[in-house]
């Protein structure tokens, strides 16, 4: 009996330590989750709150109303939020497609081909993403004004591509670099050309990473504000700029509740997109790490 008690004690202590470690993990994850969601939760609570109770500190849904969302889409107040949403969709969509089109081939070349100064080229690509956007606003404004592009969609899309393209190249290069050469060589031995091997073998395997990169690029373009605030006009204004200049139902009053409602409308599509495709996103982010 004494021997059994002596053997059981260390096991009980080990189980206790495992439970304690698991509890710490869950508590830490819960704290991070709550910390990240509190701003969004407060934005949604304020969006559904009557304007007379804007600064009510009650952390629950009180004085519920839909009027703020009516204000957001009311063109009588000078808001054109529907058109702003379409502008953002167009700019982010075209930016994502073009950045992926060039990013896939650039990443494939940087990972597969051997040429001099390859790492220097990759360094320039990464360095381009580190330029502060505010330093480019004035030259871009002068350039696009001189060539008549101010207020056009291309004036928003082309600078966006320059910011998003390094992200796509860096992400996809890491993935392609971990992909085994033997797959492509086997396809070449079976009669495929290099283009067919890339299209029929490499691209299907790279689909999770490409899909993940597309979502990250779309979110980055959708949230872009600095360039759009300086190079867009009333016709091409995106939602991030429109929210900054939002007009409320009352003159000379900052429409905080309407701004929160507009922020909710803009955020919900991104949240749905990430929730629907979260498995593909995780698969894409981890694919290069396990091959």
Q: Given the helix and strand composition, which structural class is it?
A: mainly alpha
Task: State the end-to-end distance.
Answer: 51 Å
Q: Could you describe the largest sheet, including whether it forms a barrel?
A: none
Shape: flat
Number of helices: 12
Note the beta-strand portion.
under 5%
Order of helices and strands: HHHHHHHHHHHH
Instruction: Tell me the total number of β-strands.
Output: 0
- Report the average pLDDT across residues: 83
Our Rg estimate from Cα atoms comes to 25 Å
Which secondary structure elements does this structure contain, and how are they paired or packed?
Blueprint: H1 2-47, H2 67-72, H3 81-112, H4 118-128, H5 134-146, H6 153-178, H7 181-189, H8 194-222, H9 226-231, H10 239-244, H11 256-276, H12 278-290
Helix pairs in contact: 1-11, 3-6, 3-8, 4-6, 6-8, 7-8, 8-12
Describe the structure.
By secondary structure, the protein is an all-alpha fold. 75% of the residues lie in helices and 0% in strands. Helix 4 crosses helix 6 (153-178).
What is this entry, summarized?
By secondary structure, the protein is an all-alpha fold.
Task: Please name the defining characteristics of this protein.
291 residues; mainly alpha; 12 helices; 75% helix; 0% strand
